[in-house]
Recover the amino acids of this structure.
């Protein structure tokens, strides 16, 4: 980081709490728009519950469509927060400071979007799925059927709910000092609410020490959960021995690195939005985009290495069904078109572009390239799931293609709207940038003189 | 019978003045539990010459992990015994499937206890704020002295002489 601007704590409070104390017109318009899209999706879900899964495009043999694609996609995005927050915190990367909070919040809302995307829908009658959660009542009353605890579909809710609880608490702990800042600037009922929420935070050396230790300790504890979540999601596929292209030992690390690729790209997109919409250019500078761009190159290349390995392992066996499935993915329209689009958007265009410093430091370029990555990564999941299920195999009496229905598409759109809505509502009540982290960077910052040049340095304990 | 304690807070903008105030309070015979610094930002430990706080946070995740693991064990074994899925030649308890759930619950326990530990060790929730000033969160550094009524004038003199920009009796 070479561009250091010294700002007073008062100025930082004013800049970063502007969204909490003042509500611009665009915020209402955006909330209304995303609220309408979300409610439309909810209505589509209600219609689905009333009519049954027949209103979707799901049919033999493709029973996992865009719902599961969306589920894997949102779980992938949720890896953004922990990648940025925990790993960069543990490695004491200074450039993490302005982006950790937004990345963590993105994690929480994308996890909830993931839960909405598939598990709720695929159970058919979700109220029955929720009833036996404490293992008190059977899933099917008539036949007395309980969920099978050995099933990979029990691992999923365990891992995701652990990750959701951990990520939410991670945010909550780091929010305490910032809520105290809002409390000190509020009056009346608002002050009472924020006073309650910050638990009477005062800022003693003991509290600060615990805040710093907590950041490191929780990062270290959340990381194993982070690794397990996408591994378990990949095992939903990989433990299924009957589907070529899914039953692969490399799926867990391949899914994790794919999640990091799409997650970090999503954080970069969010950073651009924060600069454009919330005018945070004093805090999120081209240096930050440069740093995350370089990180994305490494992540992108690693992802491509695993993608390549997955293909090598698949083709090296020369098993006819596997080859047939791969041919379907790559040579048969429309999958062939989607495959080319996926390769160009997930890897070739963005990673090549990020090699240039001018691209990494340009907000519009970063916005476009990171959006491309997530289009590509969504397609990657689609190409794993749908052609995997619709392959023509022996002893299958019927097969067909898959086209998502309008109901499915509305529900997919609702998950995107939910994320945007969540981020907007969060930004109305809490700062999107961690105030104390930014202030700490300011007090630890010094200029050191080397020869005739003064360069910025950060002092650490 | 303990003498009734009262508090006073001095507000500073210069870190050196705060360190001077802390030294002066120590030299005037104030005990370590009678004064504390309040800041709006984490300063490196010992910046103001304050005593290093001792924390025992490392115990919490360990205890939580043990609880979580035990819960995972009971949960998985209990469920499989209560509703046995008999598969020919295979044991009722499927260890690989159990291990994943136990792993998640172990970490969940560790995380929940850690967060509980952070709150507990931070001495939160604090129902009564005591001596505090809202300017602390905008860059001022507060030195709070909680002492007997007789000693309060002494404390006020120390805070004033060390360069406090404002002194308040809450």
């Amino acid at each position: 980081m070479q561009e250091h601007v010294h700002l007073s704590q008062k100025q930082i409070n004013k800049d970063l709490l502007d969204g909490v104390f003042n509500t611009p017109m665009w915020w209402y318009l955006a909330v209304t728009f995303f609220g309408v899209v979300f409610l439309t999706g909810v209505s589509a879900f209600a219609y689905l519950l009333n009519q049954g899964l027949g209103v979707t495009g799901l049919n033999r043999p493709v029973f996992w469509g865009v719902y599961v694609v969306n589920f894997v996609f949102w779980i992938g995005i949720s890896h953004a927060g922990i990648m940025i927050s925990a790993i960069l915190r543990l490695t004491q990367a200074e450039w993490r400071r302005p982006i950790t909070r937004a990345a963590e919040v993105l994690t929480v809302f994308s996890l909830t979007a993931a839960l909405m995307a598939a598990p709720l829908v695929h159970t058919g009658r979700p109220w029955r799925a929720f009833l036996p959660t404490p293992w008190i009542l059977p899933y099917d009353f008539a036949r007395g059927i309980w969920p099978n605890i050995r099933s990979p579909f029990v691992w999923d809710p365990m891992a995701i709910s652990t990750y959701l609880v951990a990520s939410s608490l991670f945010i909550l702990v780091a929010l305490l000092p910032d809520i105290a800042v809002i409390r000190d600037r509020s009056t009346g009922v608002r002050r009472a609410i924020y006073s309650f929420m910050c638990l009477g935070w005062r800022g003693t050396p003991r509290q600060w020490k615990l805040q710093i230790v907590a950041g490191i300790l929780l990062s270290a504890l959340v990381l194993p959960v982070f690794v397990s979540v996408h591994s378990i999601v990949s095992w939903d596929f990989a433990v299924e021995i009957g589907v070529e292209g899914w039953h692969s030992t490399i799926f867990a690390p391949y899914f994790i690195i794919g999640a990091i690729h799409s997650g970090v790209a999503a954080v970069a997109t969010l950073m651009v939005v924060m600069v454009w919409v919330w005018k945070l250019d004093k805090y999120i500078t081209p240096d930050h985009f440069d740093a995350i761009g370089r990180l994305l190159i490494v992540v992108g290349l690693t992802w491509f290495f695993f993608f390549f390995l997955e293909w090598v392992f698949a083709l090296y066996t020369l098993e006819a069904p596997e080859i047939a499935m791969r041919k379907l993915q790559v040579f048969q329209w429309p999958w062939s078109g989607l495959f080319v689009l996926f390769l160009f958007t997930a890897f070739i265009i963005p990673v090549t572009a990020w090699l240039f410093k001018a691209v990494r430091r340009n907000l519009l370029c970063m916005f476009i390239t990171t959006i491309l990555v997530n289009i590509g990564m969504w397609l990657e999941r689609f190409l794993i799931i749908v052609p995997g299920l619709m392959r023509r195999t022996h002893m299958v009496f019927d097969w067909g293609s898959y086209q998502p229905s309008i109901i499915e598409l509305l529900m997919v759109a609702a998950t995107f709207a939910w994320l945007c809505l969540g981020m907007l509502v969060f930004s109305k009540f809490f700062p999107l940038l961690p105030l104390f982290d930014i202030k700490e960077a300011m007090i630890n910052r010094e200029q050191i003189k080397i020869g005739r040049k003064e360069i910025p340095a950060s002092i650490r304990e | 019978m303990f003498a009734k304690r009262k508090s006073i807070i001095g507000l500073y903008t210069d870190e050196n003045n705060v360190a001077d105030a802390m030294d002066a309070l120590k030299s005037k015979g104030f005990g370590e539990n009678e004064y504390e610094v309040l800041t709006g930002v984490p300063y490196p430990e010992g910046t103001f010459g304050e005593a290093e706080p001792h924390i025992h946070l490392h115990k919490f995740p360990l205890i939580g992990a043990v609880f979580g693991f035990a819960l995972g064990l009971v949960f998985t074994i209990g469920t499989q015994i209560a509703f046995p899925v008999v598969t020919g030649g295979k044991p009722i308890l499927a260890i690989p499937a159990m291990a994943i759930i136990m792993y998640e619950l172990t970490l969940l326990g560790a995380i929940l206890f850690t967060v509980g530990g952070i709150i507990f060790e931070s001495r939160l929730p604090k129902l009564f704020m005591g001596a505090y000033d809202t300017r602390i969160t905008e860059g001022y550094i507060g030195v709070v002295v909680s002492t007997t009524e007789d000693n309060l004038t002494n404390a006020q003199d120390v805070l004033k002489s060390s360069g406090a920009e404002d002194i308040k009796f809450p």
